[in-house]
# Entry
Amino acid sequence: MKVISLIGAACLCAAFSASVTAQEPQTGKSLYEENCAVCHQYDGGGVPFMQPELFGSKRANDPKGGVIDMILFGSAAEGAGQGEFSNEMPGFDFLTNKEIALIATYVRTNFENNGGAVTADDVQPRRK
Amino acid sequence: MKANIFGAGLVTLALVGCSAPEEAGHDAQQATQEAAKEMMMSAVGVADGAAVDAETGISLPAGFKATIFADTVGEVRHIVAADNGWLYGALRRSMRGMGVVALRDTDGDGVADQREYFGESIQGSGIGVHNGHLYFSTDTAIMRWPLPESGVPTGEPTIIAEGFVSETQHASKNFTFDDDGNMYVNVGAPSNACMTEMRKKGSPGMRPCPILEKYAGIWRFDADTPNQDQMADGHRYTTGVRNALALDWNPHANALYLAQHGRDQFASFFPDMYTNEQSAELPSEEFHRLDDGYDVGWPYSYYDHLQGERMVMPEYGGDGKTVSTEGEKPLFGFPGHWAPNGMMFLHGNAMPAEYRKGAFIAFHGSWNRAPLPQQGYRVVYLPLDDDGAVAGDWVTFANGFAGPEPVMSPRNAVHRPMGLAEGPDGAIYISSLMSAGRVWKVTYEGN
# Structure
C-alpha cells in the first residue's frame, strides 16, 4: 500500500522516484533519509544559520501536532520569516499519513529526542 | 574548453605543484620572457591534508604565515581593510546591538588590540570602501558613512541604494565597485530553481521565471548618489544569477567577476536522473566574467564541469544529459555546493607575483553533498592572465578551517571561510562567522 501510494504521489508530481523500486518496506529512517536528510542532515545536525538541527528540538519533544504540522506545511507552519534560519522548508503534504507518522516518530525518538510515537490517525485531522 | 581542461582539478593541481618550483630553479636565468610569465602563473598552493598550524588552525602555502587577527568578534560576513589602518566587518547578527565590528592592530604583531562596534540596529553582509566612504549593506539597503581618520564613523549613514524586497533566502546585498564610480549589487534569488512550489519535489520550473524581474541578478548603481531605488534607478547589469556572494571587480582586466552558488538537491528531487555522487558534484559553482547584459543562465540551465557543457535544468525538462542553449559558459566550474561566499582580486604587490592577478575565492563549504562527506571549507586561488582569462589550475590558498576531515555534517565544521580583504600593507584577511566569529591575517614572509 505504501509503495502504491508513493507511486501515486510521484506521478501526480510529474516525477519518478527511484526509491519506489526498493523492495524493503519503508521505515521512519528510510523516509527521513529520502525526504529530510538533504537539509536536516543524516545525523539531524541541520546546517548552521540555514536549516535547524533536530537535536533537542522543541517541536520534537512538545505535543506531537507541532512536528506533524511542520512536515505537512513546512515553514508556513511557523509563518514566513519567523524563524532564525534562512532557508524555507517546503510542505510534505504529498506523503501519506502513515509516511508522515513514520518520519515524525523517527524524529521524536532519535537525535536525543523523547517526544514519543506518532500514528497515522494523529496526522489526518491536521491536514487542511 | 578551459573549464573542461581544468575540470580535473586536484589531480592536475598536484602535477603543477610538483613541477613548477624545480623548473623555476633550473631555468630562471635563461628563461624567455614568455616562459617566465608562464611560471609566474604557477601558484603552488597548499596540499590537501597538509598539517595545520597549531595556533591558527589553518594550513597555507610555503612562505605564508597566519595570525588570528581577532577572535569571537561575532558572526562576521564580508570584511574590508581601510587605508586608515582599521579592518571593518559586517555582522550577520548584531553584537551589543551593533552591526559592524572595527578592529585595529596598533603594535604590528598581527593581532588586533583595538575593537569597537558600531551601526546601531543594523545587521548585514556587505561592506566596502569607496571614494572616502565606508559602505555597508543590510538585506534591503546599501548605506555609507564618511570614512573616519580612525575608529568608527559618526552620525547616521546615508542611504545609497534601497527598495530591495525583504527576503530570507539568498538575501545578502553584497556589493563591489569599479573604477568609474559604479557600484554593483548582488540581488540573489529567493529560490532554488524557480520551482512553482518552493523546493517541493516534482514541482516544475516557471517560465518565464518571474523572479528574474527583481532578483537573480547584479544591479548597477551610481556609487555616490543617495536614495537610489533598485527598480527605478538601478540598472540590471547581469541576469540569471542564483546568488553571488562572491563578487568583485578585477582591476587587472577591468571587468566584473562572480562565483555563484549553484542550485541544491538534484538527487532528492530527481533520483532517477542523478546519483548521490553526481548530485554531490553538480551543478558546478560557476565562475564568470560579466559584461553589461550578460545572462548566467539560472534557472533555465546549469553548468556541468564534468561534461563541460551548460545543461537544461531538470525543472525545465532537463535529464542531466541535454545541453542547453540558454546562459553563458563560465570561465570555470568548481565542484558542486562548495558555496563561494567571498571573492577578491589583489591591488597591491606584497604577495608573490604568481598570486597577484587571479581570483581568491572563499568557499564557505557544502551542506548539500550528503550522504557523501561535505567539502570545500577552503580559500582557493584561480590564476588569471592580464586579460582576465583562466591561466592555470586553481590551487588551495588556505585550508583546515573546518577541523578534522571528513566533515559528514556541516555543524561539525569549526570554521567556514566567508569574507576576504587586502590590507594597505598587502596582507590578506579571511573571516569566518562560525564558532563566534574569527578573522585571520595572512602575510607573505618568503623563504
User: Anything to note?
Assistant: Residues 28-126 of chain A form a domain with the Cytochrome Bc1 Complex; Chain D, domain 2 fold (CATH 1.10.760.10). Chain A touches chain B through 38 residues (CB under 8 Å).
